[in-house]
Amino acid sequence: MNIRINYYRGVYLSQVDTLKLIVDGEEFPAGKMTFSVPEHGPNIPSNRKAYTFQELGKAAKARWFFGDLMTLTVPKPGGLSSGMHKVQLGLFVRNSYIPMFDKEQLFDFFGPHPGGATHYGEPPANLSLITKNITLVQ
Amino acid sequence: MNMTRKEFLQTVGGAATTAAMSSSSIASGAGKANLKRGVSLYSYQDAFYTRAMSLEDCLAEAASIGAREIQLLPEEMVPDFPNPSDKWVGQWKDWMAKYDLVADTYCQFQDTVLIKGQDLSLDEGMEMLERDLKLANRMGFTKMRMLIGTPIDVMEKGLPLAEKYNVWMGCEVHAPARTTSRLVQRWVEVIEKHKTKYFGILPDFGIFQDRPNRVQRDRNIRDGTLSEAATKYIEEEWQKGTPKEKVAEAVAKMATKPGDASYVDQVYRIKMQDPKELVPFKDYIRNFHAKFWEMTENYQEYSIPCEKVIPALIAAGFNATLSSEYEGQRAIQDVYEVDECEQVRRHHVMMKRLLGA
């Protein structure tokens, strides 16, 4: 499955924080998928490099460019059957331009945050999902 | 539901633009404005994302409306960010010359939580800052917009680097912060301690908002996070000056959607900062982020009264760039055709009238 970033800039792969995929009610864990992105971008035809979810978290130099397709490869014995499938996807990209700790307690726009913990960059408690009905033709 | 942009503005947008604007009369009589018109290419993000417009198309569009001062998010549009080839940088400079544009402001993002669960160390933070100062310098940018959460120690330790790469760094004053916030006072302390010309502040026009941003509210209603009845009630009571506590109590009883309670806070936070309060910071301001959500067919921003702000900035003698930034695309893209070029054009008609050029 191909996805594009739900954000207004490209990010380092390590910023892909949380991904949830449900097909026909069955959840497929991100830890078992591979993720591939073009090595150059945005919109530059180039070789793709594949990562496990664990490798993504450490890839702080490679980028997922704005608008470029990331391909998720999901292992499923026998694959999906032909016909329509209900695909639900949630993605949280850690667009983390505010520190987790605000030593001097300067960021009052967060309201009171005793100890300086801003909790910024933490994934939402309820990741919102988009739903699409996608037909597989074989 | 399919609707053209024009139909949309005639129905939703056109209906509430009753406040008359006589911008040309405000601008006349003012001295020569030292405010230059520019655009942040963020404004064209939807067209770029869907590949309807290339970076060169965005530059050509900006040039065609006289928005000469370019603001860019390199992480969005620069090929192989942060290390584009010299050949590409040469291409960028050729475009700037071809379209007679100025590389004004580079938007930086200090991604402090690059690795899950840990903040960057100061050294890693400096490395990230230098990454951007270097690229800004290569591309000919002389200003850099820093986001509001950029750590103060990175800013302070980065001053010699900013000087080395000849880039002024302006920290954004973004709502709900105001120039009166402690954070801004802390920045000014650093600026004055080092007597530096490389650190300043960069106000976002969101601080001048004086009524709710209806395109975002309506999107949230369509998404099911806000209810129409609660938002209508909250906005009416806010306008009447009903105490917040009373409204919050009533909403708690009537709320049907998850965002209704926090919408009370959101609406009650709206308070236009008086542009006069920015005058003491005049020497520290070289760029304004002229953010907007919705330009109506009357060339007015629906919830940011630019016709009050810009003349005040002219009168105070600010010498800065106004970078238009259209931020409404994601609020309407689910049901309406997004026309970012038209929205930016309207913003520039408004600015041109107010600036007299």
Can you describe this structure?
The complex is a heterodimer of chains A (138) and B (357). Chain A contains one helix and ten strands, in the order ββββββαββββ. With 138 residues, chain A is mainly β. A four-stranded antiparallel β-sheet of chain A has the order 1-8-5-6. In chain A, strand 3 and strand 4 form a beta hairpin. Chain B folds into two domains: 267 residues, Divalent-metal-dependent TIM barrel enzymes (TIM Barrel), CATH 3.20.20; 55 residues. An eight-stranded parallel β-sheet of chain B has the order 6-5-4-3-2-1-8-7. Chain B is globular. At the A-B interface, strand 2 of A face helix 3, helix 5 and helix 10 of B.
Distance between the termini of chain B: 39 Å
**Secondary-structure element pattern of chain A, one letter each:** EEEEEEHEEEE
Helix vs. strand class of chain B: alpha/beta
The oligomeric state is: heterodimer
User: What is the residue-mean pLDDT of chain B, rounded to a whole number?
Assistant: 92
* Residue share in β-strands of chain A: 35-45%
Radius of gyration of chain A: 17 Å
Topology summary:
The complex is a heterodimer of chains A (138) and B (357).
Chain A: E1 2-3, E2 11-12, E3 16-23, E4 26-28, E5 34-38, E6 48-52, H1 53-58, E7 63-64, E8 70-73, E9 83-93, E10 130-136
Chain B: H1 5-15, H2 23-27, E1 34-40, H3 45-49, H4 55-64, E2 69-72, H5 74-77, H6 86-98, E3 102-107, H7 122-139, E4 143-146, H8 152-157, H9 159-164, E5 168-173, H10 182-194, E6 199-203, H11 214-223, H12 228-240, H13 244-254, H14 260-268, E7 287-292, H15 306-315, E8 319-326, H16 329-332, H17 340-355
Parallel strand pairs in B: 1-2, 1-8, 2-3, 3-4, 4-5, 5-6, 7-8
